[in-house]
Amino acid sequence: MRKYNSSFKTAFISEEGSRLRNHDYFGFVELDKYACYVIADGITDMRDSESAKKAIEAVVSAFHNDPGIGKGKLKRYLKCANKELLRGKSYEKLKASITVVLTDYMKFRYGCAGNTRLRLYRDGRMILASSDMSLSQDMVEEDRLAKDRLAKHEERNNLYSYLGKEHFKAFISKKKKLADGDIITLYTRGIWENIDEGELSDVFSETGNDPIEECDKVEDLLLSRQPENLDNYTFAAIYIDKVFTDPNRRKRIKMIITIALVILVLALVFSVLVWLWRRDRRQKREDMEQCFANVETYIEDNNYVRAKQECEKALELAGKLRDQEAEERYNNYLVCLEAVIQADDAYDQGKYEEAGEAYLSAKVRARYADNIATVYIEDRLQRIENFEQVFNNITMGDSLLAYGSYEMAEQRYLEAKKDASAIYFTEGKQQALDALENLYEEWSAAEEEAQEQSEAQAADEAAAAELVRQGDEAYSSGDYDGAMVFYLIALEKYTKMEDTTQIAFLNKKIVALNEKQQEVEARVSEAKEFEELARVYEEEGDYEQAKLQYQYAKNIYGELNQSNKADEIQSKVDIMETKKETAEKKAEEEAKEAEKEAAEKEAEENAARSMSENNLYDR
C-alpha cells in the first residue's frame, strides 16, 4: 500500500573500468511497506571474487525474510552478509565495502562498513553524507589531512571495518525523515577517487525527473577525466518524487490524542498516588531520622533508657520503609544500648564484677554501632576498676591482719580509704574505716599477747640452742638420724619464734645432713650390691670370690662407722674362709680316692691280661 502511494525511482550504472572484471554490485528490492537498496565494492584482488555479490544477496535475502527499518534489523542484515563472506571457500578471504539503505517510504536509515558512500540531496544541496571507515578519513576528522586530498591519499583504502572481518562492526544511522524531491545517491571508490564532492553536488543542483540521466552525467564526467587506471565504478540514484502520506493520519492523531489524554489522566492519578506514597515515606524517613537523632542526643546525655525507646521507634520505621541498611544499623545500636542498660542495673545494685563483664560486652557491641557510649563505658569500667582497687586493698589488709601483719594491713586500709575518698566512693570508704577500727582493736590485743610471749620466747631460744648442740654431737658421732631429729625439733621451735636467722642456719644444716644421708644411703646400697654378688658366688661355690665381695662390703661399712654391720660381714668372710678350706680338703680327698681307684683298676687290668697270655701259651 505504501509503495503504490509513493513514488521512488531508481537507476544505476556499474562498469569494470580498466579492470578485467567488475567486482562492484548494486541491488535493491521494493516491497509493499519497506524497500532495501544495497551497494557493495569487492576489495579482494582475486579475479573471480564475488564478495560484493554474495554480500548483497545475503542482505537482500535477510531483508526478504524479515523486512523493516529498525536498527536491530539492519545490524542483523549486515551480520548475515559478514557471515556469508567468512564462510567463503577461497584461499584468499572474501572482503567487501557495503552501504545499505532501508526505507518505509516515509523515513530512511542507512548502515555502512568500508568506503562505499551515501549522499542525500535536497533542494539542490547535499544535506547528509556517510563517512569512510578508513585511516585517511580519521586523519581528515582530526584535521591532519585536507578533505580535498582524501581521494588520492595513500591510506584511503586502509579500512578498519569491512565485511569479511572476524570482529565486524558497522555504522548504523538514526532514522531520517524523507521529503518530496529528495535524492539519495550511492557510489563506490571508482567514482569518488576521480570526481570530487563539489562536482557531484553541481550535477544534482539542477536535476530532471529521470535518475538515469543523472547517472549518465556522472559517468560522462568520470570518463571525460580519462584516468589512466580506472577502478570498477558503480553509481546509483534514488529519486523520491513522492513520500508516502498516511490517509488515516488525522484519525490516528485524534486517537493518539485521546489515548494520550487517558494516559495523562492515569499518569496524573498515578503521580498523585506516588506523591502521597512518597510523602508518607518521606515523613516516615524524617520521623525515623528524628528518632535516631534523639537517640544520639540521649546517648550524649547518658540517658540510655530513653535512647533505647527512641531507637526502637527508629527501628520500627526502618522496617516499614524496608531500609535494610538502616535496620541493621539501628538494630546494632539497640543491642548495644540494651547491653549498657543491663550493665548499669548491675552497677546500681553494687554487683561490680557482674557490671564489669556487662560493660565489656557492651564495649564489644559498640564496635558495630559507631562506637557509641564508648567514653561512658570506659568511664564506668575505670570506676569499677577503682572500686575493685579499694576492695582489693581492704581484702589484702584482711589477709595481712589474719597473719598478724598489722602495720602492712594498716597501710592497705589507709590506701583503700584514700582511694575511696578520691573517687567519692562512700561505701568503700566506710568499709575501710570499719576495717581500721577492727585492726586497731586486734593490734592492741596482739601487743599485750606479744609481751607475754616475749618472756616465753627467751626460754624457747635456750631450749632450741641446746637441741642444735645435741644434733651437732650426734652428727659428729655419725648418728645422722638422731642429728636430723634434733635439728627438726629445733627448727620447729625457731619457726614458732620466727627467728629467720636461725631458721636459715638450721635449713642449711638440714640440707647438708640430707646430702650426707643420701651419700651414706648410696654407699650402703653399693655395699648391699657387693653382699648380693657374694651370695651369688657362694651359691655357685666360688668361695674365694664370695669372700672378696664380702670384704668390699665390709670396707664400706667400716668407712661409714657402721661397726655392727662390719662385724656381721666379717663373720661371713670367716664362714667363706672355712667353706673354702673345707672345699679344698674335700677336693684333695676326692683326688686321692680317684688315684687309688685308678691304681686298683690298672692292677686288675694287668692281672687279667697276664691270665689271658698264659691261656694262649697253653694252647
Q: Which fold name is given in CATH as the topology of the largest domain?
A: Phosphatase 2c, domain 1
N to C succession of SSEs: EEEHHEEEEHEEEHHHEHHHHHHHHHHH
Query: How large is the count of helical segments?
Result: 17
Q: What's the story with the biggest beta sheet?
A: 6 strands, antiparallel
Low-confidence stretches: none
Top CATH class of the largest domain = Alpha Beta
CATH architecture designation of the largest domain: 4-Layer Sandwich
CATH superfamily of the largest domain: PPM-type phosphatase domain
User: How much beta, percentage-wise?
Assistant: 5-15%
Rg, please? 64 Å
What does the average pLDDT come to? 84
Mind explaining what this structure looks like?
The chain has 619 residues and is of the alpha+beta class. The chain folds into 4 domains: 3-245, PPM-type phosphatase domain (Phosphatase 2c, domain 1); 275-372, Serine Threonine Protein Phosphatase 5, Tetratricopeptide repeat; 392-457; 460-526, Up-down Bundle (Methane Monooxygenase Hydroxylase, Chain G, domain 1), CATH 1.20.58. The protein contains 17 helices and 11 strands. The chain has helices at 51-65, 71-86, 135-141, 189-192, 197-203, 211-224, 249-300, 304-321, 324-348, 352-366, 374-402, 406-422, 426-476, 480-497, 500-540, 543-559, 563-618; strands at 7-15, 24-30, 35-42, 96-103, 107-113, 117-122, 125-129, 171-172, 176-177, 182-187, 233-242. The strands form 2 sheets. Strands 2, 3, 4, 5, 8 and 9 form a 6-stranded antiparallel beta sheet that branches. Strands 1-11-10-6-7 form a 5-stranded antiparallel beta sheet. The longest helix has 56 residues, at 563-618. The chain is elongated, with a radius of gyration of 64 Å. It starts with 6 loop residues before the first strand and ends with a helix. The mean pLDDT is 84.
